[in-house]
Amino acid sequence: MEEQPIKHYSSGVFSGEGEENSGLHRRGSRHSSRVELGSQKLYRPEFDSASRGEATSEKLWELMAEYIDTEKSTIQKAIVAHVEYTLARTRFNFDKNSCFKAAALSIRDRLIESWNDTQQLFTAEDKKRVYYMSIEFLIGRSMQNALINLGLEDKYREALEEVGYKLEELYDEEVDPGLGNGGLGRLASCFLDSLATLDYPAWGYGIRYDYGIFRQMIVKGYQVEMPDYWLAQMNPWEIERSDVTYDIYFGGRVEKKWENGIEKSNWIPNEIVKAIAYDNPIPGYDTFNTINLRLWKSMPTNEFDFQSFNQGDYFKAIETRQKAEYITSVLYPNDSTPSGKELRLRQQYFFCCATIQDIIRRFLKKPREWEELPDKVAIQLNDTHPAISIPELLRVLVDKYGLEWQRAWNICYKVFSYTNHTVMPEALEKWSVELFERLLPRHLEIIYLINFHFMNQVGQRYANDPKKFDIMGYMSLIEESRPKAVRMANLCIVSSHAVNGVAALHSNLLKTQLFARFHEYFPKKFQNKTNGVTPRRWIKCSNKGLSDIYTKYLKSNNWLSDLYETKNLMSYIDNEEFQEEFRQAKLQNKERLAKWVEKECGIKIPTDAMFDIMVKRIHEYKRQNLFALYMIYRYFNLKAMTVDDRAKQVKRVFMVGGKAAPGYIAAKKIIKLINSIGDVVNNDPDIGDLMKVVFLPNYCVSSAQIIIPAADLTEQISTAGTEASGTSNMKFVMNGAIIMGTMDGANVEIVEDIGIQNAFIFGARVHEVDRLRVQSGAPAGSRLQRIFDAIKSGTFGNPKELSSLVESLEQHDIYLVKSDFYSYIEKQEEADAVYKNQDRWLKMSITGALNMGRFSSDRTIHEYAEDIWDLESVEIPKPSLSAISRVKSQPNINPTQEIVEQHIIEGHEDWQCKIDDIPAEDLEASLMKDEESEKIPKYLYTS
Ligand code: NBG
After folding, report:
1. Do 815 and 888 share a domain, yes or no?
2. Which residues are reported to carry the modification N6-(pyridoxal phosphate)lysine (predicted)?
3. Residue 906 pLDDT more than 50?
4. Residue 166: CB partners within 8 Å, gap ≥ 6?
């Protein structure tokens, strides 16, 4: 029996048990829910019959009893109806984009049905729900994912073909919502997919930014950031909830008064803005459950306008209103200025306050004791950005509902749990006390109160320790620095009942280094929850060839909801037909990427070359620079060879993609360096197809879906101990790429499962890093020095711009590029040697792909539900095959919910200035800023 990492989630196949006994039995029933019911007439289920009361309208009930059927003609009618009646287009200007929008709206109609039923069921069952709070959700495109999860992809394809449209082309019309930045945001989206698929009662909460992460363009090798107004084309998936709004306060003062011997606080704000909800249905795979992602947008209220208008200051009043709208206008405002910092804190509080009000309103729908709150509500804080929810909940309980402090604290403690996503100390959020006091005076008082109680306890615990005051200083929620600051991670750790890291190695580092004192103090609180990714998006949507192989050989689609099943295919590892299909699938993915590269970058790449790919945020700890140094090393080697020797070498295409934070000059220089290497190598006639270097612009979820399945080799080369987990490593291996990597983040667990012999592992191990750092000024060694000298002398781009990249490595190489370089090139040589033996390469690649069961986000979510949230799943009953004859009232169905809102906003094209007109000097100047003066924005510490 294979050892399974989790208790109740093993596949019957591996545990030797029958399906009935396996944790996945529910799966079977779910399968019959979507797939087998097919195109029969389906009636919507009924819940909570006892409490629904008397009939209100028989006709209404009857009209809303049926699910939309899945007949081809129904699909077609719905699409043309949306084209004509929602988009107001005619037969004569019916184009691809309107067809996409109409198809999306018709899919949304279906999602709304299950979404409404799911919400109604959650309310009726009244089980505990988890609320996943995240400042980012990197959703990616929704259409294909929705169709796959609904089991309707083929039907839509067929229906559209008859009206002259290709489904795949419509997919390309969809704009990627840029509501996130990196791994943390994508993880949140994978989690929602798994929560919905596993039928957990869950909601996501976040912010509906007008401008997400910038759109990256590469102009003359430089990164140029363009605003990404993703809403310009309307978002067909969201539902505006003008009926769900909350007031959010800022600023002002706190009034105190005594009531029955107890001090009462009343916060009198001097600013109020409004939060309005936008709901985004998230369908589970092969289930009728559809959960909600509620995103908040800020709006002005009328409250304070009156005064300004009365004083005749019309423009001032408008300005105040615009300031309110500003709050949700952009993801991660630049925090290098005081006003940028303030905007970030406003954003965070805004979304926390709206969310807590929403959760409490839902909780209070039934009369209950406050002690029941933790039985009904779990709140997961995705990093510290939503941490102000903690003092906010305490404030609501104490100030608004009059709970005594200790009682409120006990409740709050059970509700919250916190996930840390990075060990980079500079990425741990801190807010100056002065700013906090000005913006959130009551919350600062509450944080001081938490700290007062906590410091008392710590003081008692370490009463006899000579380091008592150091320990207290380290654990305090307040940093006694200048300016004094609130430490958000400490607030989260102290106030949550569970704290977790995102891979085993990372969780250990939290316990032994970053939060060692806290671990000593709260040993049981710390846990590990290794990340995962959803196989629905990252295999099924992205890699049709591989998905077809799995379904064919496993004779079912079950692997999509139980990824451990793919391991069963190991018995085919020597089967030639299977191997050939696997090889062909990879080749087709490479051809698809080659076409994309030619279109986006104008570079032709050979598909018989090894595709060696690194895509992630550009950061020194991730070491794209190490990858670049290897490219130069390889180029020099090729140049030094005779023509005959060259012909024996493995062809390689090096591809790098990722965004550098706008203020992070060193990262931008790395992009420029890679492009400069490309300029030299790609135009060298000696080299030809032997080596190509491509920078893939504007890396995002939809391009990842094309890039990842095409990789032969994936670079996962962060310095040991710096990458919390990484999730692209999982996506790549699932799609048959082999890891070239360090023992860092989740790489460690991946090689544990796939076998270390099926990856290329090099470099310092975590326990060696500190010692090596001490020697970071050591010489580079002759082969590396030669590369440094070439960069400094201008062989690859302007040395005025790029030398500093090398100098920093020569002086203080904190990420150990120099000391890992030689073991890296050795492994790269090994990769070449294996690649020459295509049989062996293929087997390594297949073995990796088939053994990734543990890295499905379904496994991760299951663990969170069991160990942290104490959550039970709630599955929607299957639809009935006949209409329910009794007449019921349906208080929860509000016809206004189905109104389709349009957000067609025009006139946002002005910024599309002619990019090629930017003078080269301006671009150069952008890299020549004084690096010291550039503060690195916090959000760069992400994957
Ligand atoms: C990132 C880490 C990654 C990790 C993701 C998801 C942040 C702050 N951290 O290693 O860098 O995979 O989080 O956990 O975005």
Report:
1. no
2. 731
3. no
4. 157, 160
User: What SS3 class is residue 605?
Assistant: coil
Q: What are the E-state strand segments in 220-363? A: 222-226, 239-250, 253-259, 262-268, 271-283, 290-300
Residue 7 lies in a domain: no
Of the candidates 129, 421, 540, 623, the residue annotated as catalytic is 421
DSSP assignment of 91-151 equals GGG--HHHHHHHHHHHHHHHHHHHHHHHHHHHHHHT--EEEEE-S-------HHHHHHHHT
**619 is known as an active-site residue:** no
The total number of residues written for the chain in this structure: 943
pLDDT band with cut points at 50, 70 and 90 for residue 308: low
Give, for ligand 1, the residue of 186, 189, 421, 717 to mutate: max count of ligand atoms closer than 8 Å to Cβ: 421
- Structure tokens, 598: 């030619």
Residue 302 lies in a domain: no
Atom of ligand 1 nearest to the CA of 531: 14
Which domain covers residue 77, as residue numbers? Answer: 19-125+145-175+882-894
- Which residues lie with the beta carbon below 6 Å from any ligand 1 atom? 182-184, 187, 383, 421-422, 502, 531, 723-727, 745, 941-943
Does position 916 have pLDDT exceeding 90, yes or no? no
Helix ranges (H only) for 328-477 are: 338-363, 373-376, 389-395, 405-415, 433-439, 441-461, 468-475
822 and 888 part of one domain = no
Among candidates 525, 491, 495, 532, which has minimal Cα distance to 511?
Answer: 525
Ligand 1 centroid distance, CA of 422 (Å): 6
> Is 281 in contact with 237 (CB distance < 8 Å)?
yes
Distance of CA 755 to the CA centre of its chain: 28
Closest residue to atom 11 of ligand 1, CA basis:
942
840 and 886 share one domain = no
pLDDT at residue 22 tops 80: no
Nearest residue CA, atom 12 of ligand 1?
Answer: 726
Task: Write the pLDDT tens digit of every residue in 247-257.
Answer: 999 999 999 99
Cα angle at 797 between 793 and 803, to 5 degrees? Answer: 55
Q: State how far the Cα of 358 lies from the Cα of 900, in Å rounded to an integer.
A: 23
pTM above 0.85, yes or no: yes
> Are residues 889 and 743 part of one domain?
no
Which tokens sit at 43? Answer: 């009636």
Higher per-residue pLDDT: 875 or 525? 525
* Residues 756, 628 share a domain: yes
- Report the chain's C-alpha Rg in angstroms: 28
Q: Which of 161-170, 903-912, 924-933 has the highest mean pLDDT?
A: 161-170
Residues 371-426: tens digit of each pLDDT: 999 999 999 999 999 999 999 999 999 999 999 999 999 999 999 999 999 998 77
pLDDT band, very low/low/confident/very high, at 84 (cuts 50, 70, 90): very high
Q: Does residue 344 lie in a domain region?
A: no
- How many folded domains does the chain comprise? 2
Euclidean distance between CA atoms 274 and 297, whole angstroms: 8
- The rounded Å distance from CA 352 to ligand 1 centre is 21
Q: Which atom of ligand 1 is nearest to the CA of 943?
A: 11
Residues 742, 888, single domain; the answer is no
The number of beta carbons lying within 10 Å of the beta carbon of residue 402 is: 11
Question: Is residue 740 domain-shared with residue 786, that is, in the same domain?
Answer: yes
CATH at 672: 3.40.50.2000
Report if residue 712 sits inside a domain. Answer: yes
Asked if residue 840 and residue 744 are part of one domain, the reply reads yes
